[in-house]
Amino acid sequence: MTSRVRIAAFGAVLAASGCAQGASPFGGLMPALQRGAALDGEPVRTLALYGGAIRVRAPEGYCIDLNASRSRDGFALMAGCALISDAEIMPAIDALIVVQAGADGTAMVIDNAADLAALLRTDQGRDLLAASGQGGDVTVGAVMGGPNLISVRFDDASTPLVDGTSPDTMRAFLDVGARLVVVTVREYDRNPLTDTQALRLLRQAVTQIKDVNAPARRS
Known about the structure:
By secondary structure, this protein is α+β, with helices and mostly antiparallel strands. Helices cover about 25% and strands about 30% of the residues. The longest helix is centred in the last third of the chain and has 18 residues, at about 195-210.
């Protein structure tokens, strides 16, 4: 995959999640979180995306908001279970988790982790991170890379996807099979997180997605 094609594909997955270019499956702000967004009020922690081609699973204390999620588009939104279901359960680290899985063939982190991490530190990378598509809205902090994981801490002064969320954002990029998956932790204004807390929650979310998509072990 050439550099130009890779960057275009990278931006396309971000845009699909409403994370760049001002695009969103909802054409604007996502609806406010509300109780009853789960299945008949029951907590839902796992959701099949793209007709079951890939799955996501929420960390402990989190449930999937079925009203806001768009499984056919590979998009899932997670919040504390008590906020959207009848379960009186809240996570130890309370924030909003957004997951966007790309189409088949978008995987690129394993083969290009160093290049993609470097991209996020550039003006073009800030454009991709900004919900508005304007890199001037974004201040990039730490960028960390690994064999199949890039994480970045940044502030995005663009209009938040959900009212009441903070500019402080932690995001991860990883490959699951042949798909690029973007995981975003957005803080609530009411509950600022330390860098350590945000990174811990991001890693929990990533671990759940990796585990739920791991090949079944033969007995």
